[in-house]
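Form P-L/3: holo structure prediction, ligand zinc ion.
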Amino acid sequence: MRHFIFLFASLLLSACAADGLRVIPAADWPGITPEEMPRAETFRSVSQTVGKEARAECLRQRRVSNCDFTILVDLDPRAEANAFQTLDDKDQPVIIFTRSMIQSTKNPDELAFVMGHEAAHHVLAHIDRQSQNAQEGAAIFDRLGKLHGEDGADLERSQKLGAEVNVQVNVKEFELEADRLGTIITYNAGYNPLIGAKYFDRIPDPGDQFLGTHPPNAARIQIVKDTARQLGLTE
Ligand SMILES: [Zn+2]
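OUTPUT (holo model):
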């Protein structure tokens, strides 16, 4: 089983009560090395400032009613560099960073930007919208399949493909939406999203694939730059 460390939550007490979560300062991460310490401490302070800003943005936008973020670390040292957003058993948003993700960032701005992006997925209700898209996509392909006289296994295949195409197309759109709002959250939390987005320079570029889950890095960087300009931030 993976170990998670609880580092920040807007509702400290309820999070403490949750099973499997512990409140431990970065200095007490099991097996933490001296090299990991500076990033772990940065992660803690970024979690507090970005988490607070993400919650404020979530309450302002009112697209979702659950705005109490919990930010966790997946302590498995073998887990690859990754950050993602999900919901806990009480439907509250959880953002999880792997240990290697934290170490792979070069400065607080990069950490803040990745965190702002993940938080934005929740503020924009992407999980709900994604399952809705899958249902709509399946329904469209179902109608098309029937029009063309498909039945049985073929029809089922059409429905699945429809759901997949609709989800993937929208997933790319969601990524860009999250980059835009993530830029705003990062900026409002006191970090520089233009420096933060330099993280894209170091990750593999997925290019523009029809069924890819992520837009090309260039498109993502452009969204960040455009949004930063609107915020009055120049390079
Ligand atoms: Zn994303």
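COMMENT: Helices lie at 12-17, 37-61, 99-104, 108-123, 126-147, 152-188, 193-196, 217-230.
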